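Hi there,

I know you've been waiting on this one. I reran it after we fixed the sequence typo, so this is the corrected version. Both the input and the resulting structure follow.
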Amino acid sequence: MISRTEAIRLLNDNITSENMRKHCLASEVVLRAMAKRLGRNEDEWGLAGLLHDIDVEITHADPYTHGPYATNILAGKVTDEMLDAIVMHNEVATGKERTTEFQHALAAGETITGLITATTLVYPDKKIAGVKAKSVTKRMNQKAFAASVKRENILECEAIGIPMNEFAELAVSAMQTISDELGL
């Protein structure tokens, strides 16, 4: 498995969008927090969060190639479980449903970062420090708010034993630890 330093280099070589890099960093800390909560390998889960969108610019976020294309970049550099979760975070491209804990965790973890970021940006100061988990869960039910965020992916947290309220708290807290890097 590659080191975080190598993963950051790989990310920077393949992702030019600053916002996408921030999304990947947010996904990394959320996945690390989920791994800690579930007693899983924090480095492995964190790196999966960091690298899950490694092919998004190459594939132009095409729903039929984004995810599986990552194997061209990551094969032999990450564990098979990481690669599987990365490929399956976009289940549309595979034609399969997510079934493993790691797959559900990555789908839920990377998706909630968008909802949290959108919630932060409607706050007057646009700072994540003031965001409460309750605000995030309230916005889960507002379909027009951050409409592109797939709520069903976020709710996959429950499939791995983390209730939505707890998941929102875990994810907000994790993202608050890197607020400066996220610019929030």
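Quick highlight: Residues 27 and 115 are 12 Å apart (CA to CA).

Best,
R. S.
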